[in-house]
Amino acid sequence: MKRILLFAKNGQLGWELQQTLSSLGQVIPLDYPEVDFAKPLSLRDLVREHKPDVIVNPAAYTAVDKAESEVDLAMAINRDAPLVLAEEAERLQIPYLYYSTDYVFGSSDGKPYVETDTPNPLNVYGQSKLEGDLAVMSTNAPVIIQRVAWVYSMRQGGFVTKVLQWARQQEVLRVVDDQISNPTSSRTLAEVSSQILAKIFEHPIEWLQERRGVYHSVGSGSCSRYEWAEEILANDLRREEQTVKTLERAKSDEFPTPATRPLISRLNCDKLYNTFGLRHACWKTSLKFMMENSGR
Ligand SMILES: NC(=O)c1ccc[n+]([C@@H]2O[C@H](COP(=O)([O-])OP(=O)(O)OC[C@H]3O[C@@H](n4cnc5c(N)ncnc54)[C@H](OP(=O)(O)O)[C@@H]3O)[C@@H](O)[C@H]2O)c1
To answer: What's the mean pLDDT when you consider all of the chain?
Structure first.
């Protein structure tokens, strides 16, 4: 039985990974406060105590606006802690799965970004994640970094549940149509991650070493937040509870936030397909599946 050390078991992605990884080995799920990524060196002892065969790390400081005023904390969690785990993976020569973000990029001209495009983060969160990618890649850990975007689940606080909540409180819903990316189901991302790991397990570690690096890994197809909201409302299982009568298009500059966000940050996932033969389902299919199976 492979021992799979999984961090952030209660996060959107971590929760789904707990389910999908269990078919591949013994999952050792951990989370805050048992583990504190703000104290990166404490992770070293933890890895040595649990002696894993794989490390899976979806933990992150994800409060994009708050990060503008909590720079040191964001850097500790998103740069320093992933580095410590990479050093341990290198020492043990074990696979390390880690996650990055489309926010390492600025706004594109519309063409989906590929892995070799030059990053240009517009906010502290994006900068901290980019520094995390660079720190992890500066080791010789057998690592796969999946760069993901617009991750959602049916748990409170994310875009999908916020739209459903607003649709029950307001008659007019205004959603920006100038932010464009790839909605990514946390369930689909967890399945893709598990399939990557299954392929890794079929080969010696040298096979992974030859393929280590960054892979874009998002829902197939892209849309604006307005189109995403439209699809969420259409798939609402309790549509009779909606008070909303009109969904209106808005622009990002109508809703100023502490952190600047890239407007267009579509990701091209061909490298993932060409290397592992894997593609995410169409974002609309994954959304429908997620909403139909949530019972809400
Ligand atoms: N959500 C998105 O739209 C999005 C977009 C692009 C990339 N990503 C990346 O995808 C990955 C998964 O994100 P997600 O959507 O699952 O985010 P999430 O739901 O916010 O999960 C992050 C997890 O990290 C944990 N965490 C935060 N601070 C910690 C600390 N000091 N010590 C230990 N654990 C800590 C959180 O615990 P608490 O909840 O207790 O704080 C939470 O369980 C991350 O690498 C993220 O950067 C996400």
So the answer is: 96
List, in sequence order, every beta strand (DSSP E) within 130-185.
143-148, 151-152, 172-176, 180-181, 184-185
Phi–psi pair at 70, nearest 5 degrees: -125, 55
Average pLDDT over residues 111-129: 97
The total of structural domains in the chain comes to 1
* Tokens coding 236: 């609402």
- Which pLDDT does position 296 carry in this prediction? 58
| Angle of helix 42-50 versus helix 81-92 axis, rounded to 10 | 30
Domain that holds residue 56: 3-153+182-221+266-281
Indicate which residue's Cα is closest to atom 48 of ligand 1: 151
- Looking at residue 11, its amino acid is G
* CA dihedral angle for residue 58, residue 59, residue 65, residue 66, rounded to 10 degrees: 180
Q: Are 183 and 283 in contact (CB under 8 A)?
A: yes
Q: In the Cβ-directed half-sphere of 220, how many Cα atoms lie within 13 Å?
A: 11
Q: Which residue from 6, 9, 12 has its CB within 8 A of the most atoms of ligand 1, so it is best to mutate?
A: 12
CATH of the domain at 60: 3.40.50.720
